[in-house]
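On to our target:
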Amino acid sequence: MIRVAVNGASGKMGREVVKAVSSQTDLILVGACDIKNVGKDAGEVAGIGAIGVLIDKDLEKMLDEKKPDVVVDFTSPHSVYENTLKILEKAHAVIGTTGLTDDQIEAIRNKTALTGKNAAICPNFAIGAILMIHFAKIAIRYFPNVEIIELHHDQKVDAPSGTAITTAKLLSELRPVEESHSPRESKELFEGSRGADIGGIRVHSVRLPGFVAHQEVIFGGLGQTLTIRHDSTDRSSFMPGVLLAIRQVVERRGLTYGLESMLDI
């Protein structure tokens, strides 16, 4: 049995993780942490009824008392880095919160070497989203002109999304730049109208109620376009990936970045 705790257990993703872990026979939920609903049963907050796991406010206290093997973090871009360093003192970490910088990711890698605990940082846990990126990496060889549009719910505080940033960085490394045409001469009548420039690839963010998590990669060629799109219409779409990461992070030494390596893609 893998002992699991959820940091951010009151949030939309945290509640889904509580439900998913509680339904597994090889995982046991032993802890939950959040600044909201402190003292309440995590199962009741998640809508599955009481499970005997109360939500703690203090992450370090929860780690000391509950002794989880793995902690899943779905909190905030503002706190995820410090949370991860605390978790790695006591347990393996599965990080779904986006917003970490390259320097912070490298510091987390170094932390795993110091403590002997492992970490998995996954910008997206939806297997369909991983396949979207995989197919885009194939297409970029033939369609070097590309832009990305990502669409999320209006409560998401960071933009662009971690998935969009990852996609843009990967494609910028793979595309034959000498064959691409980037309209840099375009004049923005309003600043930001052409989106963010990540490695020479334009990324556009949409934040509206009604969306969950969506991304399309649009390729343009002579007389044709190709669009590769993934839609998560419910947060349950992320749970198979979360459960896979929980099971694998125990064995994968150091830092694993992205779910794709766990899927052998």
